[in-house]
Structures are given as structure tokens and as C-alpha cells.
């Protein structure tokens, strides 16, 4: 998981960047994994992992102080994102191997898309409008 991390992303409140996690010694990496396992086992998550910082990013250079010309970005703690990535990857693999999701529930899996589901909903809405019916 660490090899796939982008090193140019912004850190959370702690200021700890992915590059620091990647370049940590093997002993420190083990400590990170043990800490993550302990969090999962106990169900206790550090309070700072539950906090995000929201920043407005202008869509254009000159946003003219108009909120419709910005998009928000939330900065989360890098350890939280790393642990979440590990567990969602594991969960996704279990779901896929055991065919747990069927029909249109597959859209959350890696390599899947919501495109066909959105198209189906769009067609249902269009038909309801044309025939003046409820959805």
C-alpha cells in the first residue's frame, strides 16, 4: 500500500506526510502496523483521526470572492488514510472473491462503475416525465 501512495498530497493537522511514513525504518513500520491493528482490535480511534480541515480551493485564479467559484477540499490524517486504504482493499477482495455483492450493488468495487446505474436511473426519470407518472 505504501508503494502506491502519492507523495505530493497535503497532510492533515499533524503535518505528517506520506513521504515520512514511506521512509520510516522497518522497525517503525512494524510499530505503525501494530498501532493500526490495535486500533482495529479495540475499536478506539485517535480523536485527531476524526477531524478534518476543510479548505476552499478556487476553481479559477480569480474567484472574485464568489463561493460558487470554489471547491472544498478536506485534509485528513495520513495514518487514517493509510489504514483505511489497507482495510478497504482487504474488504473489497473478500467481497469480490465470495461474490457477496450482486446485481447493481457491484458499483463500489474496484474496476466497477456507477455509469450504468446512473444511466438506468436517468431513463426511469425520463420515462416518468414523458408518461406523467410517479417514479
Characterise the protein shown here.
The chain is mainly alpha-helical and 135 residues long. It has two domains: 2-100, no CATH class; 101-135, no CATH class. The protein has four helices and two strands. The protein has a two-stranded antiparallel sheet with strand order 1-2. The N and C termini lie far apart (43 Å). The model has no long low-confidence stretch (mean pLDDT 84).
Task: Give the count of helical stretches.
Answer: 4
The arrangement of helices and strands along the chain is: HHEEHH
Which spans of ≥5 residues are poorly predicted at pLDDT below 50? none
How would you sum up the major sheet? 2 strands, antiparallel
Mean pLDDT across every amino acid position: 84
End-to-end gap: 43 Å
**Approximately how much helix is present in the residues?**
40-55%
- Into how many domains do the coordinates divide? 2
Sheet with most strands: strand arrangement: 1-2
Shape: flat
Structural class: mainly alpha
Radius of gyration: 21 Å
Question: Concise description?
Answer:
The chain has about 140 residues and is mostly helical.
Comma- or semicolon-separated keywords:
flat; 2 domains; 43% helix; single chain
Layout of strands and helices, then pairs:
Blueprint: H1 18-22, H2 26-42, E1 53-58, E2 70-75, H3 78-97, H4 115-130
Antiparallel strand pairs: 1-2
